[in-house]
Amino acid sequence: MADSDSDSEWKKLPCSKWTESHVSTWLKSIGIKEKYIQKLCEEEVTGPILLNLKRKYLSQTISMRSAQIEHLLLKRDELLMPEPTKVKKENSPQGGHNAQRNGEENSELSAVGVSTQEAQNKNEKKALQSHNPNNESHIGALPCHEYRTFCEDDKNFRYVKHKVLPPETGNDNMIVPCHEYKSLESAHKLESRKLKIKVAREVLRFACGCMNMRANGTIHFGIMDKVTGIHKHGEIIGIPVRDKEDFIDALDYIENCFKTTKQKVDARKCIRNPKFIEVIDTDDSEERFVIEYDIVPQASVVKNELYRVCIPFLDKDMKLKHEDKAFYQRIGANTLCIPDDDLVDFVHGLKEKDQLREVDELSVDQTIFVSNEDLKRNLSILLTGGTQCMDNSLFYIIVTNKFQPEHLKSIDFLVHMNIFSVFDFDPDSKTSGLCAMYKEKHAANLHFLHDYIKDLSTADLMKQLQLCDRTSWIFCNGRSDFDGGEETLDEKTWIKTKKKQLKKAVSVICNEILPKGSFVVIFLLMAEVEQPLVETFHEFYSEMSGHGYLTVISESRENYLKWSNLAKTSCSITTLNEISIVDMSWSHVNTSVQSFQLSVNRPTRCLPVIKGGLCDLKSVDEDMLHSLEIVSVDQCDDTNSEMMDEGKIKEIEQHFYQGGKIDWMNLWLADKKLCGESIQRDAFRQTNDILEGIVQSSNVKRSIESVKICHHPGSGGSTVARQILWSWRKKMRCAVVKQSNEITTVCEHALSLREYEERDKNRALPVLLLLEDCNDDYLDDVRRELGNAIATKKISSSLLCFVLLTCKRCHDPERMCRALPSQTVAVTHRLTKDEKTLFSKKLELLKLQFEPDFILTFVLMSDGFQRSYIEDFVKNLLHKIDHSSLITRLIRFVALLNSYIHDSYMSVSHCEASLGIGMLVEQIRFNRFVDSLSEEARLIFIHLRESKQISSIRIIHPLVAKEILRQLSTNLPQSTIAMELLQDKVLIEHMFAKAPFLKFIQTLFIGRNQIIKGDTEYLSIFSPLIEKVITEREGVQKAVDLLKAAYAALGKDAFVAQQLARLLYSYTRFKEALHWAEEAKSQLPYDTFVLDTLGQVYKRWFYHLHDTLEEQELEPQKVSEVINIALKGITAFRASEKAPKKETVSLNNSYYGEVDVGCRLLKLLSMVNVFATKDENSELLNYLLTDYIPEAVQKPWQKFHGLLKGLQKSMYHALECISEDLSYFQKYINEEDEELDTREPEQVHNPRKWLTRKCAVYANFFCHVSDAGTHSERITSFQRQMRAYKLGGGNIASIFYLLNDRMTDRTGKKLEEIFSMYPENPNRNDLDETELVNFLLCQVALACTWPGSSKLLTLEKLQKLCLRFSLEGKYTSSVSALFLVSILFWPATNNEEHNSANSQALMSAIDALQKPFEHKVMNVPSRNTRRTVVHFFLGKAVGLYKIVHRSAIEKQIKGTISERRLKWLGGEVWTNPEVVQLLKRVEGWTEGGHLFVRANTKGSKIRVFPRNSASLPNSNENVTFYLGFSFDGAVAFDIQVKK
Questions:
Q1: pLDDT, position 1350
Q2: Calpha distance 72→53 (Å, rounded)
C-alpha cells in the first residue's frame, strides 16, 4: 500500500517539486524503457531538471533513440499545460485567478465606472466556465515560445504570432520573475486617455503585488489571458500600437495612485519603462507588438515598506476617479488584495521577505557561463550526419552573406566540400568576396535566382544550368560586376520581388533535384544578419520538413542572437541552438572541418608529360573538363589517412566483393598494401598487350585507335577496364567519359586534356578514354569528332593521339572477339584454369574477413556462376523471408526491374517511401535504411555509390535477380508483381529520382530485346516482360491490363498506348486496338511512330478481314467494308508520311505500310467478281487507270472511287521514295526508336529484298501485255516500266539488290531480259529520264556480274547517253542521274584523255550532287551525315570494268554481319590481299584541311570527302587512297601519305 502511495505521490505535486524517484515513476507511467529510466536516475534528474532537458543531452549523454526522445519530450510538454483541477484549487474567495483571466473585461468595465471588486464578482462565473474541461482547447496544438530575457533590452528579440508562452506563474523565488498576461484584444482600440488608464490600472496593481512580495515580475500586454474560441491561454497575438507614448505616459499615474512621496519614488525605481517587442507574422504585414513592463523590487529600495495603491478608473461622467487604497499581493499566478484579517500577519512577514530578497540577490551568479561543449565534435556531427567523416556521399548547400577579408584566408575546408550550390547575398562576392576566392580553386557557374524559374523539365533545367558538373553560385541580391542589371535591393523591395524566386529555387532543389537526406544546408553568418538571409532559412526549413540537415555557423554571438530571434518563426530557439556553432573562430572552423574531411587540402593533381615528368593539373582547370573523370598519377593520394581506419577499409572492400563497381579507392588501397590485392584476370593482360602494341608500334597508321572489352553482364569487364586505366595512368593521360554530355563537349575536353601544359601539340602523350556501355553510333561519333578536331588543330595524322577503350556488355563476347581479335578482348563468366586458382586463393583469404554471404558476387564468380549454386542460395534465402512483409515486396519490385532492364536501380528515397520509414525518422540516412531491412534483404541489395546524385540500390548480380524472380513467380505470377508495382502510388508519385524510375517502368513495358539468330539481329515483338506474361494463364488479357495500368501510371504515356494497340491487333482485337492507337495519337498528334501505328492497326485489320473472306465469288457490296478499312489504313499512313520527321528518322516508315496495304488491296480487287471474270486484269486496270467505272461498283464503292483511281500513282511514289532513301543511306534507326518501330523484320533488316519483292507484286497488276506485244518497239513506256519492276530493274534500289545476289548467272539473265524490252537504239529519245537512269545502271550492273554479256554497250556509248541529262541550272536531273555521271565519267587514270565536254560533265555532276544531299541530310541525324552508302569503288581495270561493286569486296571479307561491320570500321578491309589486288589507289593531295584529286581539265580539281576524317593529314601532303562513289559524291578510304 505504501508503494502505491509513493507511486501516485508525483501526481499531487508540481513538477518543480519532484525528486529523482518521482521522475522515475512518471517515466514508467508514460512507457519509457527501463534502461533509460535507470540512466536518468543515476544522473540525478529531478523535476526542475526534467523541465529543462534538451534533445541533445538525451541523445548524447543518455544514448536514447529518437522515438523515445520524441515521446518523452512530448509528454514533458504536456505537464506544462494548465489543468482545470488546478485552476479550481487556485481560486480565492476574492475571485482569484480566473476573474483576473478576464482582465480585459474587468478593465473595460472599470474604464466606464465599475470598480475592480464588482468586475471580479460579475465575471467570476464566466471565468470558471472558461476553464471547464469541455471548453478548454489543447495548448499543445500550438508551438511554445520562450520569454525575453528579464530586464534586458535585446533589440533583436522578436515574438512569433500564435506561438504560446508558458502558463502564468507565481513566485518560486524572489529573482525568477513571475508573469501575468493581458490581451488588450479589444481595449487597444480605445482612445488615448482611456488606454492609458487601462494600462495604468493593470501595471500598478501588478507592480504593487510584486513589490510587496519582494519578487521580480513582468506583465505582458498582447498575450491572451484567457481561453477563447480561437485563441489559447498564453497565445501571442500582439496589438497594433498607434502611439508608444501612451504606454510610457501610463506610468505617470504613479504620482496620483501612490500617496506618499517615498512610495512614489520607489514605484518609479521598481517599475521599468515599457519594452515594445515586435511580433512576427508571416501572414500579416500589420505591425504588432507585445508591451512588457518589468518589475524589479531591489532589496535596497523596498526594505521595510508595505505598498498600497489606489487604482484609477473613469466614472460614468468620464471623470478620473480612484478606488480605495488597497494592499496587493501575488498569490500563485494572481494579483489579489490583502484581506484586512491577514494584513497584520503579512506585515510581520515582511522582514523575512526582505531578508530572503537580500540573500537571493547576493546568491545570483553574475559570472558568464562558459560552455564546455565540444564544438568540434558537434561540428562533425552536424556536417557529416553523424558519420564523423566528410566524403562525397553528401552534397552541401552554402547560404552566406558578406565575408570579411580576414575570413577569406580560411576557406580551405570549403574547397574540399562537395558543394552543390551557394546562395550568396554578397553583391561583391565575384570581385572581392567568397566567390572570387573559390573560383581560384574550382570552377563555378554563376546564376541568379530567376535562372531556376524556367518552364523546363527537371532534367532539362539541370542540363542547361550544368548542375551535375559544377557548383551553382546563385547571387541572391544583385551582383556588382554584372552588366545585365542585377541590382542590390533593400530588404522590403527584395521581399516583394525576389522572395518568390527564392522560394521556387529552394523548392526545385529540395523537391526535384536532390533527394531528402542527401544534402546539408549550411548557413554562414559572416556579417550582420538581414531579413532575406532569414527568409532563405525559412524556405529551406519548410521544404526540408524540419532542421534535420540544417547547420548554422556564426563566429559572432551578436550576429547569432539577431539571427535566432528572426529565425525562430520557423523553429524554436532550443532547436536553433542545437544546430548552431557559435563563438567558434572562423580559423578554428576551417581547421576543425579539415581534420575530418576524407580528402586533404591539395590544390593540384599530377598528370604525366611526354618526357617522363609530371605536371600539375589545377582543380579549377579540372573542373572545366567536367565531361571527363580524369585519373591522375596521384589519384587518391590526397586521402586523409587518419580517417581511413580499418573499419572504413573493410567497408570499401566488402562493397566491391559484394558486387559493387570497383572504385579508384579499391585500387589505391591495394597499391598502398592497406588491403588485399585485386585479382587481374587474363583479359587484363590481353588488353594490356594490345595497348602496348599500339603505343610502342613504330608504324602508327591512325591518330585514333580502339580497343574493345566485350563482357557478359556481371562478369567483371568494367573492373578490367578500370584496372587498365589505373595501370596506365602514369604512361598516358587517362579519363572516363561521362556520356551524359554532348559529344562535341567530350571531344573538346579530351583534346584539352591531351594538350594540357604541353608546348608542342605534335609531341604530347596520347589520351586513353574509357567509354562504358556506349552504343556503336556514339563511339563512331566520338571518333569522328575527335578526328575533325585533330584535323582542325593540324596535328600529324601519323601521331597517336587517342585510344578509345570501350567496355560493353554482350551475349557472346567470344564471337565478337573472333571477329576482330587484334582489337577485342572477351570477358566471360567462365574462368580459365589459372584464374580459378587465383580466385580460390583470394576467396580463402576473404572468408577470414567476411561472411561468404556478404561477398556473394565474388563467391559466385569463383564458382564460375554455376546455376545450381545460385538456385540453392536463392532457395535458402526465400525460405527464410516473410512473403507478406513490405521488405519482401520491395525485393520483388527490384528483382523485376533488375531482371529485365540493364543498369536499373531503385533510389533509396523510393525504398524509404515504399517501406514507410521516410516520414517517421528524422535525419534518415542510408545506414538507417539498411537498419530497416531484413537480414535477407541486406544480403542481396547493394548500394550504388557511383551515382553522383541518386543514392540507390540494386540486387547484387543480374543472375541472382533473375533467379529470385523465377522462384518468386512460382507462387506469385510476374504479372501480379508488375501490377502491384504499377498500383503502388507511393512509388509512382514519389518526387525524388522520379524521372529515371518512371523511365525504368516505361522500358519494362515497351523496351524490346535484341535477339541474335545467326548473322541476323532483330528485336523481340514486345518487351520481354509482356512476352513472359503472355505465356501465363489468360496471359494476353493480363498483358493488356498491365499496359492499361502502365498507361495510367505513367501519366497517359502515348508510347505505352502505342504498344497496347500493337498487342491488341496482334491478337485480332482490332476495335480495342483502334481505340488505343487513337488515344496515343491524342497525346502525340504529330509523332511519326504513333501515326504509323494507327495505320498498322488498319493494315492488320484489313489483312485479317481479307484472309477470312470466303474464296467464292466476291461481290462489290460484300467487300465494301474491307476496302474501307484498307483505304483508312492508307490514309493513316499518308498522314504519318506528311508529319514532321523525327531527327532520328531518315525516311518515314509509313511508306512501307502504304505499299503493303496497296499490294494486298490490289489482290483483293482482282478477286471481286466484276474483275475476276475478265481477261486477266484488263477490266481492273481500266478501272484503276482511267475514268471508267463499272456499273456494278458504281454505288457500293461510291466513297472509294477517287482513292482507288489514285492507288497506282501513290504506290509508285511510295516505292520511289523508299528506293531513293535506300540508295542514299545505310539502314539506321537508333535503339530508342527501334523499340517503337512497327515494321516487319524484313523491312528493317533487308529492306532492298522487301522492296524488290513488293515491286514485283505491284508490277504484276499493272503489267498485262499480250505475247504479240512483247517486242521492245511495240510496248509502251508504262508497260516497259512495269515489266522492269517485275524483273527487279524498275528502280535503282532494286537494281542494287540484284547486284548483291551471289548467283551471278541468275542476275545476269534477269538483266539481259530487262535489256530486251528497251529499244535496240537507245540513242533515240524514246526513254524518259527515269528509264534512262535504270537502263544505264542496269548496264553497270551487268558489267559487274556478267562482264562478257553481248548486251553490254561500250563505256563511250554510255557516256554519250549521259550527256542527255541536265547537269546544271534550275532543272537539274535526278540524283541517280548525277551519280551515274560521276562513276561513268571518272577517269581510270589521271592521264586518261578526256574531251572538255566529258570533263565538264564530271565536274558539274560532282558539284550538283552536293545540293540535293545537303537538303536530304536535314532530316537525318548528324551521326548519319556521312553514313551514306558507298555503292561502287574504282578498280584497276579499264573501261566499264573499272567500276567495282561493293559486293565484290564483301565477298572477300569473312565472318558474320557484325564481324564484317567491325572490319569495315577498323580498316582491316584495306589490308585484305584480294581487295588490294582488285582496287586502284588514287593519287591526290591535301590542302587547307581538304582532299583533292586533279581533274582532266587543266587547272581544275575535284574535292573528295574522307570517310574517316581522322586519317586526313593536317599538313599539305601528297596522298593515295581508295575511291568510292556514293550519292553525295566521291569518298576516300584508307588515306596514306605518299612516300
A1: 85
A2: 10
Residue 331 phi/psi, 5° resolution?
Answer: -120, 110
Q: Residue 444 to residues 434, 435, 447: CA-CA distances in angstroms?
A: 12, 9, 9
The gap from C-alpha 1058 to its chain's centroid, in whole angstroms, comes to: 26
Cα 1 versus chain centre, distance = 66
The amino acid present at 730, given as its one-letter code, is: K
CA atoms within 13 A on the CB side of 388: 7
Answer whether 0.70 is exceeded by the pTM: no
**Residue 97 pLDDT:** 37
Q: Which helix (H) or strand (E) holds 1486?
A: strand 1481-1487
- Say which DSSP state 278 is in: E
Question: In terms of C-beta distances under 8 Å and separation of at least 24 residues, what long-range contacts does 840-843 make, across chains too?
Answer: 842/676, 842/679
Distance in angstroms (rounded) separating the CA atoms of residues 1073 and 490: 62
**DSSP state letters, 110-150:** HHTT--HHHHHHHHHHHHHHHT-TTTPPPGGGS-B-PPPPT
CA dist., res. 1387 & res. 1442, Å (int) = 9
Instruction: Give which of 691, 697, 641, 700 is closest to 665, Cα–Cα.
Output: 641
What pLDDT was estimated at residue 699?
65
Span 1119-1138, average pLDDT: 90
Name residue, grid cell 536531273: 1373
**CA 80 – CA 167 distance, rounded (Å):** 7
Nearest C-alpha neighbor of 1262 from the set 1274, 1289, 1280: 1280
DSSP character at residue 825: E
The Cα–Cα gap between 1347 and 1341 comes to 9
Sheet of 178-182: strand order equals 159-160, 275-280, 288-295, 217-221, 178-182
Q: Is 1248 exposed, middle or buried (0-12, 13-18, 19+ CB in 10 A)?
A: buried
When mean pLDDT is compared over 65-79, 276-290, 804-818, 1096-1110, the highest value belongs to 1096-1110
How far is residue 715's CA from residue 812's CA, in Å, rounded to a whole number?
12
Grid cell for residue 1038? 493480363
pLDDT category, 255, cuts 50, 70, 90?
confident
Output the DSSP codes for 1417-1454: GGGS-GGGTT-B-EEEEEBSS-GGGGEEEHHHHHTT--
The C-alpha cell 558519420 sits at 387
Which helix (DSSP H) or strand (DSSP E) does residue 220 occupy?
A: strand 217-221
Which DSSP state fits 157? -
Between 1422 and 1135, whose confidence is greater?
A: 1135
Q: What's the distance, Cα to Cα, between the start and end of the chain in Å?
A: 115
CB neighbour list of residue 865: distance below 8 Å, 6 or more residues apart:
714, 715, 829, 959
pLDDT value for 1052? 92
Helix (H, G, I), strand (E, B) or coil at 966: helix
Contact 641, 602 (CB under 8 A): no
Please count the CA atoms within 13 angstroms of the CA of 314 that sit on its side-chain side.
Answer: 16
- Region for residue 918 given its phi and psi (left: phi exceeds 0; alpha: psi -120 to 50; beta: otherwise): alpha
Output the nine-digit C-alpha cell for 1274. Answer: 511495240
Q: Which residues contact 1267 (CB under 8 A, 6 or more apart)?
A: none
Report the relative pairing of strands 288-295 and 275-280 from DSSP bridges: antiparallel
Q: What is the C-alpha separation between 1306 and 1315, in angstroms, rounded? A: 15
264-268, 615-619, 1418-1422: the lowest-pLDDT one: 1418-1422
pLDDT attached to residue 1137: 82
Cα radius of gyration rounded to whole Å, the chain: 44
- Burial, 624: exposed, middle or buried (Cβ in 10 Å; 0-12, 13-18, 19+)? middle
Q: Is the pLDDT at 651 greater than 50, yes or no?
A: yes
Q: Judge whether 1535 and 1506 are in contact, CB under 8 Å.
A: yes
Neighbour-count burial for 294-322, b at 16+ CB within 10 Å, e otherwise? bbbbebebbbebebbbbbbbbeeeeeeee
Q: Give the three cell numbers for residue 389.
A: 567523416
Q: How far is CA 790 from the centre of its chain?
A: 34
Strand partners for 27? none
Parallel/antiparallel/unpaired status of strands 550-554 and 519-525: parallel
DSSP code, position 915: H
